[in-house]
Amino acid sequence: MTADATSEFFDFCPSLAFIAAADGTITRSSKALAARFEARLGSSPTLTSLAAPDERETVTAFLQTLAKTDGPASCVFAVPEQAGGQTKVRCEARQGASGSIHGVLELIPTSALGESAQIQLERMLLRSVMDTLDIAIWVVDPTGKFVFQDGTGVKTSGMTPGDLLGSNVFELYPADTLPPVRQAIAGAASHYKTEAHGVHWETWNIPLKNQAGETEYCAGLTLNISAAVKTERELKHQLDTIQEQQRAIQALSAPLIEVWDKVLTVPLIGVMDNDETNKLIERLLAEVSRSGARFTILDLTGVEALDTSIASHILRLLASLNLLGVEGMVTGVSPIVAQTMVGLGVDLGSVGTHRTLRDALRYCMRELYR
């Protein structure tokens, strides 16, 4: 880049950009930086002097980090304002082969609360999460020693918050369960699910890093997901039951099955004629009124052929269900039946369709419990 191009860059760059010597002395800055911190940039400004007095050690450590690494580094420090108060900035920079430092400052938005009030709010939020959710939150240092352990999930696991403080995670638990913790201490987050003593847990291991990017602690968030696992297993059991029932009633053309509370399914099998369809409509509407169903699933997986009359009956059935306040939907439309419908000009645009019975049942479950 020519001298003129460099000057133009620093004149028009909207970022708070700078070039500094290895000791942090700012040798060139953008007009945006000079305008924002004019009061802090004297005749010989440095990154260290730009920072608040109690945070200059942070900048000094940052400069030392830049000197030891080939890649970019960052740190956060406060800059005193002329009108009072401080502004937090994030400094991201990289040191070149010549020793000069090239970087930018990014203003960090401040909270609407004061710093002490913000800390208090964060503590209240953390306590609320730990008391409301069945979650265990724990923290270990790089050696594996527990420095924090709290949350309702700790009690669920049979312990009292703080029981593990001072203990070492690498001594308490089997070696084959510890790689995620080691990964987090090394700087890589992990996520996994486990089961212990009949309780199902979902865990996130998160590295907690300092301003220099070094991992100081490993935090673990362990959530009790036993209720979700139970629901999933019940759903699987229900689906398995449906499949068994379908195999047991192959001789029936259209059985009515209450697969879940308020959910009816009608697996249509074979070739449906007008008489069978009319009987189905009568039986289904009666069953809907009796059971108070909210959803009815017409499963066409077993339908071998469909004509215009049967298609119109199905549409009439779905319309009748809608008048009763029941959401009707169609699943299992085979390629042959789909081609027939298109060829006959049957419009299912206003009808809910799902690829499989499983997909339709999942949809009903979500709607029932949301």
Automatic annotation (TrEMBL):
The keyword Cell membrane does not apply. Pfam families: PAS, STAS. InterPro entries: Bact_StressResp_Reg, PAS, PAS-like_dom_sf, PAS_fold, STAS_dom, STAS_dom_sf. SMART domains: PAS. PROSITE patterns: PAS, STAS. Residues 122-192 form the PAS domain. Keywords: Phosphoprotein. Residues 253-364 form the STAS domain. This is RsbR, positive regulator of sigma-B. It comes from Enhygromyxa salina.
